UniProtKB/TrEMBL annotation:
Species of the source: Chelativorans sp. (strain BNC1)
Keywords linked to the UniProt accession: DNA-binding, Transcription, Transcription regulation
Region described as Disordered: spans on this chain: 260-287
Gene Ontology molecular function: any one: DNA-binding transcription factor activity
Superkingdom per UniProt: Bacteria
Full protein name: Transcriptional regulator, AraC family
Domain HTH araC/xylS-type: 174-272
Bias kind Basic residues: ranges: 260-271
Keyword Transcription regulation belongs to the record: yes
Amino acid sequence: MNRWQRPPPDPEVQLLKGELAASEWTFSESGYRSFIFLSGSGSVRSGDGEVPFAAPCLIWLQARRGGSLRANAGSRGVSLSVSEISFARAVGMGPNARAIREALSRPLLVVKLESKQARRLADSVEGILEEGMQDWPGMDDAVRHRLALLLIGAWRLSGPVMREAQPLPRTIMHRFLHAVELHMREHWTIARYAQEVGITAECLNATVRRVTGRSPLAIVHARLTQEAISLLDSSNLPIADIAETLGFHDPAYFSRFFKRQTGRSPNKHRQNSALRSHSGHSFAAWP
């Protein structure tokens, strides 16, 4: 099996070449898994039981801990593993984004395909693999756009999306976190996030507090702080550039925000991080 994997949040592609023995995947991480089988058969096991499948078919599922997929000997196709962040970036915020997220956020989707449909989807996944293997200029953008085309194709094949009159708390959180990942640098209001999720601001606030114990604004601020810490620790960018990257037009305001969240200024955090890194180097191991 050929495999390409770049550091998260980029996707992982695996070619399934018809092994002589059965193959099995056990899911232990969050994110999504997709299998396009051109030939063969098998079954998917989850908390809801076991679902058999036969090629040609598309399988799309949330990679929840405890789930697994077994492909019988001789099964051929492709597999794609997608992180939550990569999924969110590929879906984007276009007119069909919400419908795509709803369709592909189901626990399990098994769609019987015609051979041509399966081949077309498999070619889309193999295109992602080819981009990663060649390391061409613009590869990241090409991978994201190829993944977006694949998601649209899977959505079209999934059938009509049934909208929930009253979204479940898990669905609300899922949509909210996707929106935060995409738009935290734009500093949306909570009302704007609620509009994107499809509920009122009051409902969003109540749901997020019930699920996490924190307000929606606290979730957004925590995610911005996490990004700020990552940039401070892993780059030499000036504080003003980091502020601009994160959507703060005033570096002084960014510094006040960061200190309010962490108890120290960005400069102080960077100094402490440099000292920790320096103290981690020891001459004791030298020959």
